[in-house]
Automatic annotation (TrEMBL):
It comes from the Eukaryota. This is TERB1 protein. Coiled coil: none annotated. GO terms for biological process: homologous chromosome pairing at meiosis; meiotic attachment of telomere to nuclear envelope. InterPro entries: ARM-like (IPR011989), ARM-type_fold (IPR016024), TERB1 (IPR042359).
Length: 618
């Protein structure tokens, strides 16, 4: 049975000291029995076989016996935890350091020594402590840097290349030194070789180099913010992102590139898992979109999908750029699809993690929108206040216009009443007033004055106007008085004639009054939109021009060239009909041309205000 075989093999080792080949064959048989057999390994330890092989490895002068003995020790230690605890001493680590440092030690002997170190520190906190305290870890890091060089190295024969196999074993041993359990002291020591690992990744993307380095990096930075920050500071995260970008571009052609891209993805995740803020570095390489492309590959297994989704989750946890990239590349529907179709609990949790980030992102966006809306509301309130101020100004102007219209109407009524009184007193002037009225009807612009009326008008009719104007404005310009006097005289002449003859109907008088008020309103609009013009001087100037034109135009042909606004007289019209009449007129005087331009400018301003209100309401 097994126990009998182990006893016989141990006796063979003891009695074949002069035959290294026989000892090698016995050692090979022993590890074949103990491999993955904890009971056999434990029994071999109990009969003293474990310590005998340990002594044989140190004392034998034959290299093949040393290599076989170290390999057998590794197999037994790996198979049984009690054997691991028995051999985990500083003395054994020091012996292994000697094997690694001797110049006459072959690559295979060094490889077997590294293998024993690996099984001693795996899942063993004491072994991790011994490897650091004895300085063995520093020697392993030196082997990591110097064992191979990627430049000019053919890695196609890695299965038969002893140097590559030694370097690969060193990488695995370093991973065991920092992980399971996590050892921060060893992690801090191992990060010293990060610059070399970064250079290798930049110069070579072969799986034989990328896989061991990514495994070493992942376990060294895991749950260690200090090491993570150092790796990012030297540009390691940028290098990994570039390697992933290159691999995902080749993934459509090579199945191995897909699998290697998953390995790089796991390394990226380990670098940002505890500090998601560093994920912003990946935004400029569009890593999230590349991960989504990789996730859509049908050849991925469940474990690989979980790794990719977790990486996406850590990238989008706090980085807005990555969050936007996830949404822009339809990442949200893809996560929902994974969540609804998958039966794996871990995969479902990973997809939920990403969706939770999206939910948080939605909250942040809503808060920003609220802030923007508050700013918009403040701006709208300010705009409303400004508009209210503008409306108040418009109302003030409108009240002034209404007050001016009322004043003009009142003055017109007073002048009409005074004209009736003068007509009764001076009936002698009927014939002359009738003559001047007929001349006006015939289109003549000659000014005919009644001496009796003129003297009375100068002394009595203008007195109220002067007094009223003095009360309002303090002083009265001589030109303004002359212009007002002429206007009133013409009005009184027409009124006298109507009173004497009885031919002027009430509607005609009312229309004349309305026309006068309308003309005064238009004059005020001109002064409102053209404040640099003086109203009284403007009216006087235009009146003089009308007089001169009337004096020189006596024929019917010249009457057709007159301004319709000037010849409207007492015709009934409103703002629309009067404007249309001025627009049809081909020979507008300067007075009515300015009025028409002011009204058009006013209407354009109203259109602009209405358009602005509509845009804000939309």
């Amino acid at each position: 049975d097994m126990k009998t075989d182990l006893n016989l093999l141990l006796e063979c080792l003891k009695y074949q000291m002069d035959c290294p080949q026989s000892q090698k064959e016995a050692l090979i048989t022993i590890y074949s029995i103990c491999q993955r057999n904890s009971e056999a390994s434990e029994y071999f330890r109990e009969i003293g076989g474990l310590m005998f092989i340990n002594d044989l490895a140190k004392s034998s002068v034959h290299c093949i016996v040393k290599e076989a003995a170290l390999f057998t020790l590794g197999i037994i230690i790996e198979s049984n935890v009690y054997c691991q605890q028995t051999l985990c001493t500083s003395a054994l680590f020091e012996d292994l350091i000697l094997f690694l440092m001797k110049k006459d030690s072959g690559v295979n002997l060094k490889r077997m020594s590294v293998y024993v170190i690996l099984v001693l520190v795996s899942n063993n906190k004491n072994g991790q402590t011994y490897v650091r305290d004895t300085g063995c870890i520093s020697l392993l890091l030196q082997l990591f840097r110097t064992t191979i060089s990627t430049s000019g190295k053919n890695l196609s024969d890695e299965n038969t290349d002893p140097c590559y196999q030694l370097w690969s074993s060193v990488c695995s041993t370093l991973c065991a030194c920092v992980n399971n359990p996590q050892n921060e002291d060893n992690q801090n020591i191992c990060c010293s070789v990060f610059p070399f690992a970064k250079e290798w990744l930049e110069s070579c993307t072969e799986p034989e180099i990328v896989r061991p380095i990514c495994s070493f990096l992942s376990l060294t930075v895991a749950n260690n913010s200090f090491v993570q920050k150092y790796f990012v500071s030297i540009g390691g995260l940028d290098t990994l992102a570039k390697v992933l970008l290159e691999l995902t571009h080749d993934s459509c052609l090579s199945h191995s590139s897909i699998k290697l891209a998953v390995v790089v993805t796991k390394t990226l995740d380990a670098c940002i898992a505890n500090n998601s803020a560093m994920g912003v570095v990946l935004a400029k390489y569009r890593t999230v979109s590349e991960l989504l492309k990789l996730l859509s590959n049908e050849t991925l297994n469940t474990g690989e999908k979980i790794s990719i989704i977790l990486t996406i989750g850590h990238c989008t946890e706090v980085c807005e750029e990555n969050q936007c990239e996830l949404l822009q590349n339809n990442g949200l529907p893809l996560m929902i699809q994974v969540l609804t179709e998958s039966q794996d609990e871990e995969l479902t949790k990973a997809a939920t993690f990403v969706l939770q980030n999206c939910k948080q992102m939605t909250k942040q966006l809503s808060l920003k929108l609220n802030e923007n809306s508050l700013n918009v509301n403040n701006a709208e309130e300010l705009d409303v206040q400004v508009r209210k101020g503008c409306l108040q100004d418009y109302w003030k102007k409108a009240k002034e216009i209404l007050h001016r219209i009322n004043s003009i109407e009142k003055e017109h009524d007073e002048e009409r009443l005074q004209g009736e009184v003068f007509a009764n007193k001076f009936s002698v002037a009927n014939s002359e007033a009738l003559k001047s009225h007929k001349m006006c009807k015939e289109g003549s612009h000659e000014q005919v004055y009644c001496p009796q009326l003129t003297s009375k008008l100068n002394n009595q009719v203008l007195a109220p106007s002067v007094t009223s104007g003095s009360r309002k404005n303090g002083t009265l310009n001589t030109t303004d008085a002359a212009s007002t006097r002429q206007t009133v005289q013409r009005s009184i002449r027409c009124s006298v004639h109507e009173l004497q003859t009885g031919s002027g109907p009430q509607s005609h008088r009312i229309n004349g009054k309305t026309a006068c008020v309308k003309n005064q309103c238009y004059i005020f609009l001109v002064t409102f939109f053209l404040p640099h013009l003086d109203q009284h001087s403007f009216c006087s100037e235009k009146t003089e021009k009308v007089k001169s034109t009337s004096a020189t135009s006596s024929s019917h042909k010249m009457e057709d060239l007159r301004c319709l606004g000037c010849t409207a007289g007492g015709l009934s019209f409103n703002s629309k009909t009067f404007t249309k009449m001025l627009q049809r007129c081909l020979h507008r005087c300067d007075h009515h041309r300015v009025i028409l331009e002011a009204e058009e400018r006013y209407r354009r301003e109203l259109c602009k205000m209405a358009a602005g209100n509509n845009s804000r309401a939309a």
